[in-house]
Amino acid sequence: MKTADIRSAFLDYFRAKDHAIVPSSSLVPVNDPTLLFTNSGMVQFKNVFLGSEKLPHARVADVQRCLRAGGKHNDLDSVGYTARHHTFFEMLGNWSFGDYFKRDAIRYAWELLTGVLKLPSEKLWVTVYHTDNEAFDIWAKEIGVSAERIVRIGDNKGAPYASDNFWQMADTGPCGPCSEIFYDHGPEVAGGPPGSPDEDGDRYIEIWNLVFMQFDRAPDGTLSPLPAPCVDTGMGLERLAAVLQHVHSNYEIDLFQHLIRVASELTQTPDLADKSLRVIADHIRACSFLIVDGVLPSNEGRGYVLRRIIRRALRHGWMLGVRGDFFWKMVQPLVEEMGAAYPDLATKQALVEDALRTEERRFGETLENGMRLFEAVAAKVQKTISGADAFRLYDTYGFPIDLTADIARERGLTVDMDGFDQAMKEQQERSREGGAFEAKGQMPADLASQLAATVFLGYETLSSRASKVVG
Ligand code: ATP
Ligand code: MG
Ligand code: MG
Ligand code: MG
After folding, report:
1. Ligand 1 contact via 209 beta carbon (within 6 Å)
2. What confidence category does residue 197 fall into, taking pLDDT thresholds of 50, 70 and 90?
3. Does the Cβ of 108 fall within 6 Å of ligand 1?
4. Distance 236 CA to ligand 1 centre (A)
């Protein structure tokens, strides 16, 4: 089943269950300045859950384009390292706004996966929130999932948001337990079942998250039942496609293979499993859709996230030996794959290509010299690249700090982030004293702090998931 057909099959299923099909919203959240990017399907329905907006339909389904490359959700540092994470991905979702609840949400999910799409039920594992006996019983007694494959999961060590299997939009407001469905890709892949110490591997891959919004959390932390409980679900299209196409990695599905083949030709890289090709294929989607949604490369805000992603892709091309521009040429194959589902992508193709080509040529002027400096620095350090060197790469050669950290990671090196922040602060003070408050290459403080969180999370991910790589 091709990825495009899976998209339609999902919508057809929920249409037949009386769901109104709504379009994907933009990657740029429409009226939520607190959020950098749309990172899940529920973003466009936030006000519906909060009660300040009412939709004409109580049942809705869609395919939402999502980006997790900054802010609270950031998977940028996992791209190329796991089989299942992208920056840009499509989330299949169905919602009940005060209509059906746990029982039907679970039944629909199970029927679609095992009845319509014919996944073998013995390869599916489910999790429930540890105290959610209602969901446990539906899975065990009504659906008939064997109890060994139903895992009770608690809170994620007090993490304030989106703790595992308990979801909340914010410190207060609608929240509730989740139930997630995992697919077992088999013993050839490393990783343990959900809830086990090595659950972070790629063997048991989470495909669908069902959120049961049933409480309202008061400022003092107490939970009271919502008058009309809601359902919010999200399933990664690429992960489902991998399962249905009998491949392990998302990057092996039809859609990605097309992009990877083109990248392989453009960069003259024969090995289609090369990590850099995967990163490039991931990043062309993120970058193109950001531009379609009105973001352009810049030194601040969302535009700076876009710039960071483009520059990471270009550096991977450079690593594969490319010395001219190539990245913008990936837009055409992307339009071939996704233009039918996203007509804006096709109509804005020329704009996307122009924006990418311009950025590509601009960074191309400094990338080579920056890499030379990086090599010189890397050759003389044991473990850590100093903040001053990272700052020089940033200030003189336009290397965003996460780019430097990413290259360092490949060499088993780290970057002194505090030192970098210090160097940045000193430069800002110097330019302030000099009276010229110039924004050259600098980020506004709010974005800087969001990105700092981002980089920090990246390191956490790195140490927990890929200590081999870090050395
Ligand atoms: P994971 O634990 O694998 O990082 P998640 O719990 O962060 O996933 P959710 O926030 O529950 O993911 O999102 C709902 C679904 O979206 C997931 O079950 C998964 O199928 C998909 N998904 C999440 N993050 C990504 C990503 N970075 N790339 C591709 N698909 C994703
Ligand atoms: Mg995640
Ligand atoms: Mg998860
Ligand atoms: Mg999840």
Report:
1. yes
2. confident
3. no
4. 6
CA of 258 to the centre of ligand 4 (A): 28
Supply 90's token pair.
Answer: 């499509």
Structural contact between residues 440 and 428, judged by C-beta atoms closer than 8 angstroms: no
Asked casually if ipTM beats, i.e. exceeds, 0.95, the reply is: yes
Q: Which atom of ligand 1 is nearest to the CA of 78?
A: 27
Determine which residue's CA is closest to atom 14 belonging to ligand 1.
234
Ligand 1, atom 21: closest residue by C-alpha: 236
Q: Are strands 59-67 and 20-21 parallel, antiparallel or unpaired?
A: parallel
Task: Return d(Cα 209, Cα 195) in angstroms, integer.
Answer: 15
Question: Rounded mean pLDDT of the chain?
Answer: 90
Q: Partners of 183 in the beta sheet?
A: 124, 205
Query: What's the pTM value of the predicted model, to 2 decimals?
Result: 0.91
> What spacing in Å lies between the alpha carbon of 206 and ligand 1's midpoint?
7
Asked if residue 458 has pLDDT above 80, the reply is: no
Of 26, 39, 21, give the one whose Cα is nearest residue 94.
21
Longest dimension (CA), the chain: 72
Q: Determine the distance from the C-alpha atom of residue 441 to the mean position of all C-alpha atoms in its chain, rounded to a whole number.
A: 25
How many percent of the chain have pLDDT more than 90? 81
Query: Is residue 203 predicted with pLDDT exceeding 50?
Result: yes
How many CA atoms does the CB half-sphere of 149 hold within 13 Å?
17
Strands 414-415 and 384-385: parallel
Calculate ∠ Cα 382-388-389, nearest 5°: 55
Atom of ligand 1 nearest to the CA of 39: 10
Confidence of residue 404 (pLDDT cuts 50, 70, 90): very high
Q: How many CB atoms lie within 10 A of CB 106?
A: 24
